[in-house]
Amino acid sequence: MTPAPHRSHTDDLLSFIAASPSPYHVVASAAQRLEKAGFRELRGTDDWTGATGGLFVSRAGALVAWYVPEGAAAHTPFRIVGTHTDSPNLRIKPAPDTGTSGWRQIGVEIYGGVPLNTWLDRDLGISGRLALRDPGGAPRNRLVQIDEPLLRVPQLAIHLDRSVNEGVALDRQRHIAPIWALGEPREGELVRRVAAAAGEDPADVLGWDLMLHDIQSPGYLGVDREFVVASRLDNQVSVHAGVTALVDAATGATQPAFIPVLAAFDHEEVGSGSETGAQSPMLERILSRSVAARGGSDEDWSRALAGAFCVSADMAHAVHPNYSERHDPDHRPLPNGGPTVKVNVNQRYATDSTGIAMFTAAAERAGAPWQPFVSNNAMPCGTSIGPLTAARLGVTTVDVGVPGLSMHSARELCGVRDPGHLAAILTTIMVGD
Asked: Would you say 413 and 228 are in contact if contact means Cβ atoms under 8 Å apart?
């Protein structure tokens, strides 16, 4: 059976995932854990002068958190863990109430690279945030999470489509509107239902960022329960590991030799090109402002970056037993063999030999295994936030990730040991011992 420390970490991971069906909930879950550990939230309009200890800034589906040890010099280098909060899914359209042939349906748009067949015939809830009218001025936001079987994208019976098992692609636009009732469409019905769940007046709803999620609970799989199965493992495994590592670095017996940072971006699955994505100046501005808050100059900022190191943590591919020819023959990671270090010489990943050396040295100190990963030359390689962060900040970056199967599926799989291994390595990097 799996050793208790790994099971304890993954038990906590499963609770984190269950509470975080949208990027906005991921940020809320992370913030709650940080505040419990003594971190405090800073607003952009606050005066940050002299701020030390655990700090974080949240913006919509993104969060940047860092810890400043007492007496840390302004030029103290950063140790950054970069992750993302979003996952491929189905997102609700601005005019959602639709239907046909006597069925009431909800209009959705595909977000990211979704294997649509994995969303068929699953019980779906609704989550996200509402933008509400506020008498004081700017709209206020309210998170909503409906973990009820409200919707379903029904698959066509095989009797009506004998070619269904012959690789025929699902029409991406016409056949993904989930059903949720019988009858003609009722304008405003969805908003009324979601507002009621949030305890708000539907008349106060001015806008929303809502999405569907599979309501099946995360859990364990296998003869010895050696696998974790859940929605959104990509990339909540890494966010959870990053939060765990940052809290451990801030509260451990040894004060960090660096400024440990967690950057959890949104919109990675669609290119990171938003105000909260890795291509935005958000991280750069927050870190430079933190240097200035400690009395630092432009020279101190440059020194802090020159000594910085970034770990871009995102899910990776384990070798698939039914499609092993799709993988590089000499790089076939397996679950529970440790996190992978991802390499691509065309810079789809930012890893170089220096980054490999720093990560693997930390793995040795943490007593955790690791595995190399390279994509099959005949297959297009995915990417992550690593190259974007490296290019934006000019810091040494290594791309890593927990290996899993069914990436981007409505329900993914990874090994039970690997999330804990990743957190242990990240803690060692953040502390710098």
From this structure: yes
